[in-house]
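Chapter review: from sequence to fold.
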Amino acid sequence: MKKLLSLFVVFVLGLAFTSFADDARVGSSKKSLEQRIKELEEKLKDAGVGGGVKGSGIKISGYVDTSYLVNLADRANSGPIAGSSNQNNGRVFDNQFDSFNLNAFKLTIQKDKDSSKFPAGFRVDTIMGEDAAVIKNNKLANANGNDSDIVLEQAYVNLGVPIGNGIDVKMGKMVSLIGYEVIESPANWQFSRSDAFRLSPFTQTGVTFAYQWNDTITTTAGVVNGMDGLNGNQGSINFNRDLSGVARMDLSFPKTGAGDFNLFAAGLVGNDNCVYNDANVVSSSENMNIINAGLTWTKPFEVKELALGLDYLRRANDLAAAGTQTATVEANAFSQYGKWDWNKWLSTSYRMSYTIYDCYPNGQANNYMGYLCPLTARNNSPLQSPQDIYSFTLTQGFNVWKDTLVRLEWRHDWTSCDSVGFGRAATGNSNDIRNSQDTIAVNVVYSF
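The token string follows.
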């Protein structure tokens, strides 16, 4: 009996020892694996690679922008006037009518500059949808595209240089320094964009240097490849062969009882070297000058629900057209904005704009109108110069759903010119031309 008891004790102690040894081996294996992972992370850091998205400061954001847009003009066939364009004339991102639209799916990945002596960061923005086709082609008139188009809106490295208050250096592809309105729909008061936005650059590729002198003044200057865009006549790359200069000054004035004022002035000077083709013109080079200034006035005379804005843009292009003397075309665009916040759920905004075009200079035989002005010419009719476009936009915004903006917008465009309009019949009466257009849009944007 004692022998059996002794054998049982030895057996139990053996199991316990074996289990302890196994645990020790497993613990040793875990420790080894954790140590190896730690060593790998240290090697990645030594190589300049961050420790992954978690805890690295990398942020991911974006939005989904959808709409339904209807043109109120009567139409018999495929356009607001039978045979005319199947797009809204003079628009930017809201050019499709009588259809549901995926305007944009935007994804942003960025890392802000850190707090080191020589800080660095980056930002990448991609856009998919119908907006991408317009950005990619950078066309002044309506761009054909679909909701499967994708474009790289921004991709730049952001560096900090420790001189004075710190110089902010960005190198790569960026949104333009010019413009009161922006590409991102939810950041604007209206769903549609003004004519001034259509005339300004969308993006730029190059290097910029920004410096904040004090709480009031910030200046930015840079060198870029002219206006970005993929010209369909030249292929799929940017053919700018001369550089352009860009600059911007932002002024944020101290708050007073009269309200908060923010002013900016921006400009671009350079040679774009793009090609533009229509029935008459092939441009081999182009000197371009843009001047833009804007003012935002919020809480005027302590009315906190109200915000007002003004914008002016002038664009002039010298076209070296094949077989003719150099022609200068230009446009001057004025816009006035207003926004009233009824409460945190409801807001009403408006925009009034006026653009005057001189795109048929000196009575020249060539038709340069289409280069800047989007209006359609009447058949066999002498062109007027200057030409004008007026526009009034009324937008009702709803912020009822979390992270979601819903907008209902009515816009009326018209011209006082007799020889041009917003649509022309391709067959039948050549005088069948529309001098105005009305559109209604429902816009839904979810931001994340």
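Two observations follow directly from the output. Confidence is low (pLDDT under 50) at residues 1-31, 46-52, 230-236, 275-284. The chain is about 15% helix and 45% strand.
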